[in-house]
Specification:
235 residues; 2 helices; 16 strands; disordered N terminus; metal-binding; PDZ and LIM domain protein 5; zinc; Znf_LIM
């Protein structure tokens, strides 16, 4: 077999990746808003009805003593007729409400003024929000383009503008190291030699395992060799 030599200059790179961050996140007749079918940890609450009894709590709205039945919501007590949406004044005694900046809103008004819109389905988000790619998503709408599973707050990779979970990204697009056969992952230093891609720590002499990074090397049967072992017969 012929012996080839050459000086390599490793090219270093980092596989691009992005990480999601999770944040908690809205009067004319309008249809009743329907929660997203896959919302988790919804922000919508319901007031608790308390019958008249020995307790005479103070109303959080008017600061007057409540005599008779009352509502409990957000750890406070309310006259039933004073627990209303801060915007449209709709009674919240028997419907869902959302707390925002110390005030309470019906679902209609919360959706209109506060709730973010999901980039995928364009529906309002009333639960946990995924913030990724400078957009907001329902947790089940931000998914791997390959396996269609929610990425949640795990690391993901972009390919042609589509997000992929780590496993599918390396399976579909990853480059394997010719030395160890493991994928070259985000942040790994790598170099190209002999027509293959290597981790910088895997490009070593096939006989003595000394590093060949930035060194003159020889090859035999596609095996890199240092100068000392360039004419070794048994590889």
């Amino acid at each position: 077999q012929g012996v080839q030599s050459g000086l390599i200059t490793p090219s270093f790179g980092m596989k691009g990746n992005s990480s999601t961050s999770v944040l908690r996140g809205p009067v004319p007749a309008r249809p009743v808003p329907q929660p997203h079918p896959k919302d988790e940890d919804t922000l919508v609450q319901m007031a608790e009805h308390i019958p008249a009894g020995m307790r005479t709590p103070m109303c959080a709205h008017c600061n007057m003593v409540i005599r008779g039945p009352f509502l409990v919501a957000m750890g406070k007590s309310w006259h039933k007729d004073e627990f209303n949406c801060a915007h449209c004044r709709t009674s919240l005694a028997d419907i869902g409400f959302v707390e925002e900046k110390g005030s309470v809103y019906c679902e209609h008004c919360y959706e209109e003024f506060f709730a973010p819109t999901c980039s995928r389905c364009q529906a309002k988000i009333l639960g946990e929000v995924i913030n990724a790619l400078k957009q907001t998503w329902h947790i089940y709408c931000f998914m791997c383009a390959a396996c269609q599973q929610p990425i949640r707050n795990n690391t993901f990779h972009l390919e042609d503008g589509e997000p992929y979970c780590e496993q599918d990204f390396y399976s579909l697009f990853g480059t394997g190291c010719h030395g160890c056969e493991f994928p070259i992952e985000a942040g790994d230093k790598f170099l190209e030699a002999l027509g293959y891609t290597w981790h910088d720590t895997c490009f070593v002499c096939a006989v003595c395992c000394s590093s060949l990074e930035g060194q003159t090397f020889f090859s035999k049967k596609d095996k890199p060799l240092c100068k000392k072992h360039a004419h070794t017969v048994k590889i």
